[in-house]
Structures are given as structure tokens and as C-alpha cells.
Predict the 3D structure of the following.
Amino acid sequence: MFKFIHAADIHLDSQLKGLERYDGAPVEELRGATRQALENLVRLAIEEQVDFVLVAGDLYDGTWQDHKTGLFFSAQMTLLREAGIKVCLISGNHDAANRMTKSLQLPENVVRLSAKKPETEPWDDLGVSIHGQGFANAAVMENLAVAYPKATPGHFNIGLLHTCATGHEGHERYAPCTLDDLRAKGYDYWALGHIHQRGKLCNDADVHFSGNIQGRHIREAGAKGCLIVSVDDRGRATVRFEPLDVVRWEVAKIDAAAAPDGYDVVERCQRQLRALLSESDGRMLAVRVDVRGACRAHEALAAEPLRWTNELRRAAHDVGMGRIWLEKIKLRTSSESDSDESRLGDGPLGELAEYLAELRSRPEGLSWLAGELAELKRKLPAELQEGEDAVRLDDPAWLASLLEHVQPILAGRLFASRDVS
């Protein structure tokens, strides 16, 4: 009977760029999070008295700024050595891009499998054979798994592989393989890396992605950590997840349906933030708030988005007392009816509503609008030129959606101006 940890995608000292532009971002906490997550992994391995730790690639995150990154990892591995814990790892695409990786010798309890061809590391004292091959370069497109050796008779066989497997959205198709490729080897457990979302690939075999140990942005939301695998005397594996993350990314989807006003939306957000905080075990939360739904509150939210964004940030501080940072707030509500149009009446404001509606419905109108905005787009900051928040003037659906959001803002300001006069 033995026990091991399956981890991957540590991305030690990952460079989190652009955090300074986010209001209130916990920059230092986020930049130190990968190191603290690795420390949590080492602490867990010692407390659980595991026999060995597997790292399925992307230990590092490209070229180090200096040797401090490698020295930190080496120091953590020394703690495992003193506890009698072995480590076996392979290089992933980010490790292969790091020119310094091979220049620092690691403690003797750490085995790095070859990147030239599949290699087997037998540990006869445990009755375990680990088979694996790392990345020789940053973009391995061939199927590495097909060349892995057959299972070692009488041993618990583990395949260590950095792969996209059958493909996952948002990840490069590195070292692709099929489940049949993996099953054909007859291994007892496959420890996979590269995909940052934890998951078991099939019900009839232990083929697992452990996910990364620390989320680095909103696309890596939810609990992050490692898998602890306990193997009994009959070679049966029991797998459980253990969180290691220090800062947890979450998406709070707020259903604003039928909300009578903006303050009701704020209260709904507070309730969800309290629920997320109660599940975080004291971790800091980086939360994206996404408010949707048809409601009477839509007009107020759309007319004064900055005001309600600040109300939501204030509410988050009240709930979290500094433990919740709202990474982004998306107000994507809609009107319960066509009340905006009817409110504008038949005069100039009504004509404005009709014009915007016609502009939304005509491709040539949207094309004209794109041309009018082209010069403005060139003056926007880099974060609005590309990425998920980019201004997409070549996308008619995006432009039409933009006009839908503009109308209540214009209506609110024009009515406010009319009331003042």
C-alpha cells in the first residue's frame, strides 16, 4: 500500500501582467500566490506522508527572470527529501521554453524524465513504475503516448504525460492522444498535465487531469490544487482532490430578473458573495460579477453604470472586509418591455429610438458606424485592442449589442436634462 500526489501546471512565479490597471487589485498577493501554493503542496505531502509526488509538466512558466525561481523550487524539494519523499517530473511546453531549467541541479530525490524519448523510472521498493516523456521544445504536436512502453509486470504502472488529450477549448493542441492510446498501454493510472481544469477523462480507467495548483486569471476559476492517490494492497486506487490555492477566482452570476431597482440587484450580489466567501476556507477571492436578467432596474443600471459599479464594489467590501476583490463587473441586464421606446414618445427622443433601432437592424448601418468609430479605436489602450474586452468593430452582433446598451444611457441623460430645464 502506498500514496502519492499528482500535480501539474504549477507555473512557478508566473508573470501576471497588467494587474496594476485594475482598481484595487491585490497585486502582491496574486504575484506570490504560485509560490505559496507550492509551499502548500509540499506541506500537504509531508502531512499526508505520501511516498512520492508527480508533476505532469509546466513546473515553471517560461524563462526565469533570475535564478531565484529555480532556487526556491530546489529548496522546497529539499524539504521533501528530508521527509523521505521522492519526486518525479516531466517538462511541459512552458518548461521547454525555459533556457535556465537545465542549468540548475535539483536535489537527489527529484527525477526528471527524458525529453528525447519515453523513459521508465522503476521504484522496486514500492512496486511502482513511472513511464513518461517531457517536451523537448515549446510546441510538441506529435502523439507522444503511442511510443510509451508497455506496463511493467507486477508493478503499479503510472503514465506521466503533458497533453491536450483529445483537445480542450482554450489550450494548445500539444501532444494530442486518444483514450484508446492511453488504455492500450495497460497502465493503472495516467497523471496528465497541460489542461488547467481538473477532471477524469473516462469512467472505466484512472485517467486524470489534476488541473493547476493556483488560478492566475478569471478563466481559471474555482478551487485549484492536486490529487492524492491512495493505492491499496490489491492495486486499487482511490483519488481525492485537495485544494492548494491561495487566491481563488470565481464568477458570480447574478440573476437580476424582476429586480425593481438597483439596490435590489446589489442585495442579490451581496448574498452570492457571502456564499462564495463561506466556501473559500479563508482564502482571498477575486470575483467577476456578471449581472443579467430582464428587470425594471435595467434603466437605472444602464443609465448610470459607473454609479452602480461602485455600489457593487462597496457591497463587496462590506461583505469581505478586504477579502473580496471584484476583478470586473458586467452589467448585462435588459428591459422587461419596450418601455424605453414608449417612454420616449413621438417627439425628437422617439425619433432617436427609431434611428438606433434601424441602425441595429441594417448591416450597412452597422458598417457605417464601424467606420465612424475606427479612428477612436486606434486611440484606445492596449487592453481594449485585443482580448475578451476588445472593441470588435468588425463584428455586427457586437455593434448591435453596443447600441442596445447606449440607448438607455442616452435616454436617461436626455430625460435628466429635460427635467432640469
Residues 206 and 250 are 28 Å apart (CA to CA). The chain is about 35% helix and 20% strand.
